[in-house]
């Protein structure tokens, strides 16, 4: 899919000062942005004197600060935020390592239902064509990209939960563990059939079988770990409060609506990438790759029903 925002990226670091959290921000050029001057507010400059675009991203940083407080993060200095491409937050790293964790906040999170300028003042290209916001499909896409504050906070909290629980580490550990399993399978089968001193051809065949078993183990384990991390992150984020849970339902409803719109805008490529329901199709026949968005939404709805009961 060829889809991108053209905007200026910005980076915001969250720091603890005098027992409270403050975002300190500076602009950072994105690969597709034009050349601009760096904006660095002095220590005595207040927010009202900063450019409007800087103040808008600063509000997103303040929202992330609130999410960290609501989630009960005791070491917010290990988290940093940056302006990311795409349509929903992304995260990398883990907060309990020296490098800390980083969460990318997309440009459309600067918009609200009352003010869509964070979307409409940017140009989005899909398959090389500019999206016309005044068209029916453009209006539908715009509507799917505008989230309420609760939905935005859930989306950020979901990434915080994933990084806090070590999701990237768990996902990265699957491949080396399965590779080690290939060696174990090979040794065990050679011992079982007494092939350590046998013909090279038979030992090679055993190695191929072990490699096949390891590949199957990797695909199954990778899917299982990915889905567990996704569902666990959703459950933790929705568990912050009922408002966060309702925001989670809205967040996934909007993602499904967005994917349906992209499916029609992208033509054949969209039909190959998105299902009619708005879920992503599997990466290939052996691996699901993505937890269905409908399942993630239904999981949060179940939590809300259980809480109400």
From TrEMBL:
Family: Belongs to the TMEM177 family.
GO annotation, cellular component aspect: membrane
Organism of origin: Gasterosteus aculeatus aculeatus (three-spined stickleback)
Keywords on record: Membrane, Transmembrane, Transmembrane helix
Protein name as it appears in the record: Transmembrane protein 177
Domain of life from the UniProt record: Eukaryota
Function: Plays a role in the early steps of cytochrome c oxidase subunit II (MT-CO2/COX2) maturation and is required for the stabilization of COX20 and the newly synthesized MT-CO2/COX2 protein.
Residue intervals passing through the bilayer: 169-188, 200-220
UniProt-listed InterPro entries: TMEM177
Signal peptide: none
């Amino acid at each position: 899919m060829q889809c991108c925002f053209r905007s200026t990226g910005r980076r915001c670091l969250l720091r603890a000062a005098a027992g409270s959290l403050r975002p300190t921000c500076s602009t950072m050029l994105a690969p597709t942005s034009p050349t601009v001057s760096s904006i660095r507010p002095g220590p005595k400059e207040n927010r009202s004197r900063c450019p409007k675009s800087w103040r808008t991203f600063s509000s997103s940083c303040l929202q992330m600060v609130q999410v960290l407080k609501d989630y009960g993060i005791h070491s917010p200095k290990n988290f940093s935020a940056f302006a990311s491409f795409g349509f929903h937050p992304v995260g990398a790293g883990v907060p309990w390592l020296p490098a800390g964790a980083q969460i990318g906040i997309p440009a459309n999170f600067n918009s609200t239902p009352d003010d869509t300028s964070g979307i409409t003042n940017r140009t989005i290209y899909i398959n090389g064509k500019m999206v016309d916001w005044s068209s029916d499909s453009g209006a539908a896409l715009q509507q799917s990209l505008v989230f309420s504050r609760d939905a935005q906070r859930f989306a950020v909290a979901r990434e915080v939960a994933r990084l806090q629980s070590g999701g990237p580490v768990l996902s990265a550990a699957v491949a080396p563990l399965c590779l080690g399993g290939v060696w174990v399978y090979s040794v065990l089968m050679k011992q079982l059939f007494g092939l350590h001193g046998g013909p090279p051809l038979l030992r090679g065949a055993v190695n191929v079988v072990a490699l096949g078993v390891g590949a199957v183990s990797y695909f199954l384990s990778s899917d299982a770990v990915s889905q567990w991390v996704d569902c666990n992150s959703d459950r933790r984020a929705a568990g912050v409060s009922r408002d966060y849970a309702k925001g989670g339902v809205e967040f996934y409803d909007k993602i499904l609506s967005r994917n349906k719109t992209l499916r029609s805008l992208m033509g054949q490529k969209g039909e190959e990438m998105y299902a009619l329901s708005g879920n992503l199709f599997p990466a290939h026949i052996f691996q699901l790759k993505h937890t269905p968005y409908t399942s993630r939404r239904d999981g949060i709805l179940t939590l809300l029903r259980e809480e109400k009961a």
